[in-house]
Each structure stands twice: as structure tokens, then as C-alpha cells.
Amino acid sequence: MNTPIAIIGTGLAGLSAAQALHAAGQTVQLFDKSRGSGGRLASKRSDAGSLDLGAQYFTARDRRFVEVVQQWQARGWVAEWDPQLYHYNENGLSPSPDEQVRWVGQPRMSAITRALLGALPVHFSCRITEVFRGEQHWTLLDAEGQSHGPFSSVIVATPAPQASGLLSAAPKLASAAASVIMEPVWAVALGFETALATDLEGCFVRGGPLDWVARNRSKPGRDSHLDTWVLHASNSWSRQHLDLDKEAVIERLHGAFAEMIGCPLPPPSFSLAHRWLYARPASAHEWGALADADLGLYACGDWCLSGRVEGAWLSGLEAARRLLEHRQ
Ligand SMILES: Cc1cc2nc3c(=O)[nH]c(=O)nc-3n(C[C@H](O)[C@H](O)[C@H](O)COP(=O)(O)OP(=O)(O)OC[C@H]3O[C@@H](n4cnc5c(N)ncnc54)[C@H](O)[C@@H]3O)c2cc1C
Description:
With 328 residues, the chain is of the alpha/beta class.
């Protein structure tokens, strides 16, 4: 067996790299600090059913990603979501239909990464704190003080602020990652016993605390006894209220939702708040992936490209391509 390649992060970027390497006959071993895969493309299981608190949907523009999404659709991992779309601004609510094809994981966002992970070897609840190279091979150290290895190469597939410390063996890569600013987002989910009297299923909001509102239950396969909604605060509001307690965040975003939705809003019977500290990169990059091929250290993630689901997948693919190219 060849010496495995370590991949830190089981979001879409890490799994895209894992799939490409596995398909090329390489052995991979994955690590994630969370209890499951998905990262920002995960879903939260709750009393109100599964909720997409991070990525809401994704689009596919690059030919390679379009093809792979078609395969995912054929396997039943994703489905099209065609919401009744609105815009909200100082003039109020207005319908805003468009031609954009929007994809979601089915029956929940995390279905995609669960399927991609398949039977690949993975350590969950394992936060990697150090990545270091000996004479020939790499070793990882986790937060419990356990070491993992040896590995022939390491791919760091975490958000940039978490990647920079893990890339210290390659200072150029570490400083590129450290230069990336990632914006926070507060997400709130609300569940109502009685369906709200509106046909709105998705809304881009301009001005005020909110940025986006979605009727979670309108997505294909979502099963809930409640009318569930996900509200995202804008980056600037989230930044300004980073340390507000969750109850206060729920109250403020619920208030903003009541103002915009244009129908009576009963008290929710379910609510939760989640803070994404590193939700989206503040700007896009064209790195594809970062690599020190001689060392065998790579970094990928949405922040190397577009800051979107598609960018994460393409970046993972690029990291794998560069690693395989170096082995030839
Ligand atoms: C609120 C929000 C809304 C969004 N909306 C959209 C949208 O509508 N459309 C769209 O295309 N994109 C959207 N995105 C962006 C999209 O979710 C991301 O671009 C994509 O999921 C990033 O994937 P990734 O693999 O690069 O990173 P991540 O999904 O963040 O995966 C990184 C993984 O690394 C793990 N990790 C981190 N540090 C360590 C460590 N030290 N040790 C071990 N594991 C570690 C994490 O647990 C995580 O699982 C949104 C994101 C958020 C947060």
C-alpha cells in the first residue's frame, strides 16, 4: 500500500480532492474537527427537521462542475430548487423571478458530502493543531495530543484563517492564507406551527440586518411538521453583533423578518441561532489551490477561488491535480 495522503477538512473542497485522489489510485485519510462531514455545506438536525444553516443552494457554471452535478442528480444526491423568489428593499417586497438553476442536497445539504465520503477512512471530532514534516514524511498532531501518520503529503482544506497555522511548514502558503479575510454570518432558524400566509420561498434582502431569507421546508425532500425558515444576517450586521447572545440575535432577526415578510407572524414554536465565524471570503481569488509540491503540502477551499460551493469543489480538484502531476 502506498503511504497515505492526509486531508484536513471534510467540507466539499476536502472531499473533492479525496475523490479525485482515490479515483487515481491514491490512499487518503481524512480528518475533521466536527462530528460529521459537510462543513459549511452541512445541515443541522433539529426538532424542526433538518435545517440548511450554511450554504442555501448552489449554482454550476464551470463545465466540469456542471457535469458532476448532473451525476449527483442522477444518483439522487441533489435536486433542483425552484423557489418563489422575492427582493426586499426600502420600497418593500417585490417578486423577482429569474432563470438561474439552483441546486440543493437532497433530502438535506449534507447528503452530498455524506455520499462523497462513502467508505473513505475518516477521523471525526479530531481537530488537527499541528502539521510537521520529518525526514521524509508528514505527521499530524491533534488537540488531544495524539499523532497521526506517516503521510506522504498533506492537503489542508479548512477555511483560510484555520489553514494558515497548519501551513507553517511552507511560509509562503501560510502567509497567502493569512491574507484572506473571511466574513461572519449569523444564521437563525424559525419554525411555525401554522404555515405563514405567503408564497415567498426565497428573498434577497437589501438594507437592515438581514441579507437572505429562505423557506427551508420548500426545498425538495425536507420533512418537517413546522413551516421552517432560515434567516441570514448581512456580513456587516454579523460583524457588528459578533458577540451578541443567541437569544438576542433570534429576537433581532425575528423582528427584521416580521417587518419584511408582509403577513402576520405568530410567535415561532422553534428557534435557534448559529454563528458562522468564517462564512465567506471577503473577496474572490484566482489561486485555484496553493501548493508547495516539493514539500508535499497543499491548501484548497472556497477561499482559493470564488467563495462558493462550486469554487470549493473546483479548488479541491485543483489541489489533487497538482499533487498527482508532481508524482508523475
Ligand atoms: C451562511 C452561509 C451561506 C452560504 N451561502 C452559499 C450559497 O448560497 N451558495 C454557495 O455557493 N455558497 C454559499 N456559502 C459558501 C459555501 O458554503 C462554501 O463556499 C463551501 O461550503 C466551502 O467548502 P470548503 O470545503 O471550502 O470549506 P468548509 O465547508 O468550511 O469545510 C472545512 C472543514 O474543515 C474542518 N476543519 C476546520 N479546521 C479544522 C482543523 N483544525 N482540524 C480538522 N478539521 C478542521 C471544518 O470542520 C469543516 O468541516 C455559504 C456559506 C455560509 C456559511
